Amino acid sequence: MEDIRFFILLLDATLRVSVPLILCAMAGVFSERSGIVDISLEGKMLLGAFAAASIAWLTGSVWVGLLAGMGVGMAFSLLHGFACITHNGNQVVSGVAINILATGLTIVLGIAFFREGGRTPSLAADERFRPITLPFADALADVPVLGGIYSELISGHNILVYITFALVGLVWYVVYRTRFGLRLRAVGESPAAVDTAGISVARLRYQALMLNGALCGIAGAYLSTAQSAAFIKDMSAGKGFIALAALIFGKWKPVPAMLACLLFGFLEALAARMQGMLDPSQFAEGLGRELVKALPFFIEALPYILVVLLLAGFVGKAVAPKAIGIPYIKER
């Protein structure tokens, strides 16, 4: 039973850790399906985290903080679009610039506003997204296996976790079952054909980037107002880049991208669990003890190693939208 409980708790942690990855991957689905490369997922998530925590602390409302995070994410998506769509700039350079700006700007503003070394003040209970206990979760907690699955794995998450997994289905529906989704996929494959049909390529791409920014803002708000109780500098910790790798691994499709994010989240959750389980003092001095000390750090590095392996060995097999990264210049 202890082994089953350990596995349930590991999956429970996997869901929580995977949320920002999934949100950023869904954001990438919209932008890259429209033909816009967006490596600024990381930066927009970080900016959204800072805005959400700051506004939640100032207003005392976590929902206002969430809206602020979404608004900031959308604003920087518009900046990316202004550079890449309106002025046909290099999309990779624009994304790198936003990432660099986000790293510096959040620290500078944090020091200027709060004077706490680049972080925001700790949020009170009402200024955070708190866990939700589903009906009968406590009563069923002692039921073998199924009770643990319901009370630990399904119940006990904050509302953003449930919203995230619902959004995966919504993104799939929008991309594959709506007129907007059809046009979105078309503009990423052949913007000239879309333009010939009388549909504005720039407008479609801006709409995709707005959705992209909103999702990145939610991911950032999750980091600072749900998973943590404050903004901490560089708290995104490369999650935007991992989400981008998951997006490529999932072939720019919502559900496979979500599954890739869950894989990365599982490895991160496993690393955290291993750090608490292994006691190097139980091993004799020598190589064995040093290996035990290093094992949690190796497991913690596995998601990043996996990113490199996937990008090195899988990118060539993943067929990207044909017009991705190519500015569309309308013929006159």
What is the secondary structure topology, with strand pairs?
Elements: H1 2-33, H2 41-59, H3 62-86, H4 91-114, H5 146-154, H6 159-177, H7 179-189, H8 191-196, H9 201-227, H10 239-249, H11 254-277, H12 287-313
How does this model look, in words?
Helices cover 70% and strands 0% of the residues. By secondary structure, the chain is mainly alpha-helical. It has one domain. Helix 2 packs across helix 9 (201-227). The protein is globular and about 70 Å long. The termini are far apart. The model has no long low-confidence stretch (mean pLDDT 86).
Characteristic terms for this protein:
mainly alpha, 70% helix, 332 residues, 12 helices
Strand percentage, roughly?
under 5%
Pattern of helices and strands: HHHHHHHHHHHH
End-to-end separation? 70 Å
Shape by Cα distribution: globular
The helix fraction, in percent, is: over 70%
Number of helices: 12
Tell me, rounded to a whole number, the average pLDDT.
86
Radius of gyration, CA atoms, in whole angstroms: 21 Å
Spans with pLDDT under 50 lasting ≥5 residues? none
Care to count the β-strands?
0
> Which structural class do you get from the secondary structure elements?
mainly alpha
Largest sheet: none
Summarize this, please?
This protein is mainly α and 332 residues long.
